């Protein structure tokens, strides 16, 4: 890919109770993918939209037709000039409207412009990663036995409502592969009973707590597995949050790729620790709900998110890389187009970036009805289509299913592509241990997504008569997960303002403080309160409303807000409202509680006197949003603005002015899907405290009470920026509410500059910056130490060779009989089967493959393993910093590390700062702890559009700043431009006297080294028979060769190869140059020949990506999962008069070069 020629730089070569929608809206589409014009192979009648076409408005209305005709003839009979003129005008208008209708209809049939997303074919095969090798080996054995119909079954959904889960494929019965059950969503088990409604992703992000991220994912997976689910459709890291009013931002973890990536990866690890497959979604750039799908908004095509290459890599694809590195089983491609190619058919995205560059080993599934072509999406890298229906909801007409069988038989979809699709799915099943029938019995889920009744049918989407069976067993899987839900909700609550008011007491105020307060009020107003401490609770958001499940898919804003709406929502088992928790916890003997649970309270005679007497007012307000298939009030998925909803701002202003006659203290509590504007009231003098509780889930009130009463010290931090106006976020922060074309175009012209990056670049003062959050105590930072671990090099090591070989199968096209519908199967109408009624006329022919299909691009140097080039994940810098609690109470602190790139003369533009580390540490008063941040090469790099690789800046120092938010960075350190790593670097060449008794002349060389801990060394099997055997095989190549190893051991077991020779070593060196060393395990053999006193060094090196050299050692070594290091040193050695190397001299020189930590090198 060439350098982007413009600032926009698009990716281009040149410059019943249930909703009938899952991750989706009720729509239909007829578009083929823009990577491939496959419309000639689609049934045009089936492709027509189910909603009225754009020409419908121009169809004649037959109502009153006779009266219209009568009137017309009567008018003509009168021959009125006026009427004739009117009729002429009507005729002209009719012609114009008709012509316009034809134009609109024709435009609706046009494909989007092609050319902005380059082709990338063929799909890279799965199975190259060592961590998946065993699973692929097992999958290969199973897939090799499958028939064509079974393979198609595994890749194709059975149709909407054709199973008990929201998504099901079909089994491969004869080989023992079960039907997979797929279920939403990111915060709980959608449509299920007796489950936990966890806090939303945005609340999890606000905790900044890796352990809670993992724990929530793990608990979520336990419930999924016990409900009979194989695949969870979460977590969500797309949308990223480019637009603060985006409807589904709340499903993700925050508006920063690093935060999203860490939270997503920890969630994936938690989910998959229980054997449930996680699905990271939505890939990629699905940043708004408006126009996300064809016809959902009346347009024939979905919006195109037009993104430049660097922005795509550094922002929107970044968190997906973390998930892939974490081993995620599935990636869901999104509804929208990216650079005018549908994401689920975009070969550059799926084949080039996801499967090649990121080394994704699992399977790609479509979002529900996000597939727009059959052959095109298969070639572009889609592996599973969901729900199976292709162009319309629940119509049973699939773009795959029988059509995929046909495409394989006629050769348009290569059999090896289908085999890879199936193998990826089956390998993921093995990878998660789902072949264990004790954990995953081969049964249907124990709940139905489509009815609350105990009995129902297994395929309710089919009108075919079916037997009634038990579909809801009402299994309670909640266990003690409410504890995790409550902890996440509490730690995800952000204290935005506190002027000495919080925490409050359950008794209100002590007698002494209460008297003092009342004295102050009396002097100011002449009025004195007596009796109990008087507290008022205001706002609909404080109360239960009509119950948490009053609206389908939570698609309305009433009562207290616990989550957003759409496929990411669940059926609440309960929702503890704030007022319920506060009623229980205030001491009734000391506190008089008044409740005004609506947003337009009447402060009349009685109400007014009550409010006038209040001494503390707690006001609740909120802002809701959700998926685009549901609209509530003026919220069509995306919020129309950043205001509080249901008159929330006016409520706060009114309460603040009325509470205690304006003297009462006010606490504002906000539940919201994202940033809201607070300018109307934030600086009001008696608004003493503000809590931003995000979306807290079922434990809402309990978690809030913990914060208010000081049981938990608030430790949440904003995962986004709260600006003063929507305009503060820039043009890129605004939702496209009105289409700007038949194919809406959204150019991400702001590039890297979203959220705090935009505010920093343009020096805009936010109201509350990204990462902001107060505590009931105070913290300070001290003693920052930056420790380079590796030498800075511009580009990472070369891409390694595959650690494993992908499975291979016969490429012979199967017998047509395998695809014919078996007569013994009873058909269900609308159920998607893999079979054809007959195979007459199917012949292998030439297929019009897309441009570039036969021109395979070079493999990305950024790839090579799961997560990308392994060198990207090596630690290059360690930053240590001390944090001290210098306040009065214990609390958790969130140290945040931000990186500033070196200032260089290059034209490359960098953000002012980027988040590259965070942790959460609990400290008692006066306690100090050292926090350690490990920064990888990836963290220090930017995407170079010329090199098409991650590049480090080698000129100038990197700056690392640590603090409590993106704008509260109290301590900084730098990494020098010529920084030495903690492992000694090359200082001298290695020279040895030619008179030495070695058959070859030694020459210095430098190779990557492996630094291993003692524990990793135990795991590595470095002394195993396999390694020794491999050493012998290398040595036997040329027995006369003597190999020299200079060994360095610092702080334990660190070994390093720095020299090679000719002969056998030269051959090895050539192999290393050809493949690049990724891992090197070194075993030193030290011998002292008594006669010659000659020191003999021998070594064993395992090249992890070089199967030819050390194939036998691979399994035992890779179990250690050890990261590599780039660092070397060498020394100058001389021989004695006899040409021998003196042992003491060798050790002396090595110790001198290695420093005090040198351990003698006697491995």
From TrEMBL:
Entry GO MF terms: actin binding; beta-glucosidase activity
Keyword list, A-Z: Actin-binding, Carbohydrate metabolism, Cell membrane, Cytoplasm, Cytoskeleton, Glycoprotein, Glycosidase, Hydrolase, Membrane, Polysaccharide degradation, Signal-anchor, Transmembrane, Transmembrane helix
Region described as Disordered: spans on this chain: 1-63, 440-464, 796-815, 846-866
Gene Ontology biological-process annotations: glucan catabolic process
Any single Pfam family the record assigns to this protein: Glyco_hydro_3
Major location category of this protein: membrane
Cell compartment(s), UniProt: Cell membrane; Cytoplasm, Cytoskeleton
Compositional bias annotation for Basic and acidic residues: 14-26
Biased composition (Low complexity): 847-858
Pathway assigned to this chain's UniProt record: Glycan metabolism; cellulose degradation
Keyword Zinc among UniProt keywords: no
GO cellular component term, pick one: plasma membrane
Family: Belongs to the glycosyl hydrolase 3 family. Belongs to the actin-binding proteins ADF family. Coactosin subfamily.
PANTHER family, sorted: BETA-GLUCOSIDASE, BETA-GLUCOSIDASE E-RELATED
Name the UniProt record assigns to this protein: beta-glucosidase
Organism: Cercophora samala
